[in-house]
Amino acid sequence: MDSNLKRSIILENYQNPKNKGLVNDESYISINMNNESCIDEVNLQVKLENEIIKDIRFDGEACAMCISSSSIMIETLIGKTLEEAREILDNFLNMIDEKEYDADVLESAVVYSDTYKQPNRKKCVLLPWWGMEKILDDN
Predict the structure, then answer these.
(1) Pairing of strands 52-61, 29-34
(2) 52-61 and 41-49 strand pairing
(3) CA–CA separation, 132 vs 96, rounded Å?
(4) Is the pTM here over 0.85, yes or no?
(5) What are the structural domains of the chain?
């Protein structure tokens, strides 16, 4: 994917993030994630029904990379089964860690394929994904 297109997708998801804003609904699983080395703090809410991710919400204070990553993760995972979500998550983590991965399953999350070139941004991009990983591990 062209680097200008990647930047454009990241910027769009920062300026107009998907599903930003939490809901007052106890059927959602909630988790708070923060990055001890910067300002990034993200609250995730996930609604699971019959092994399917029905909804994901987020809110918090974070940099452009973290907010856009949250938005793209949400867009990528809603509607997926827990098994599909785990496959996507594993491939995303492999991509960020410069390991072998399947770009096709990542959909638009592949825009972060060059993150390894800026190691100080890895935690920003990974923070919401780590939160989702914890939720998947616990369910």
Answers:
(1) unpaired
(2) antiparallel
(3) 16
(4) yes
(5) 3-138 (3.90.1010.10)
For 38-60, how does the pLDDT look when each residue is reduced to its tens digit (9 = 90+)? Answer: 889 999 999 999 999 999 999 99
Cβ atoms of 28 and 45 within 8 Å: the answer is yes
**Helix then strand then coil, % of the chain, to nearest 5:** 55, 20, 25
Find the angle CA(103)-CA(109)-CA(112) to the nearest 5 degrees: 90
- Helix and strand numbers, DSSP H then E, in the chain: 5, 3
Q: At what angle do helices 3-15 and 64-77 cross, to 10 degrees?
A: 90
**70-94 pLDDT, tens digit each:** 999 999 999 999 999 999 999 999 9
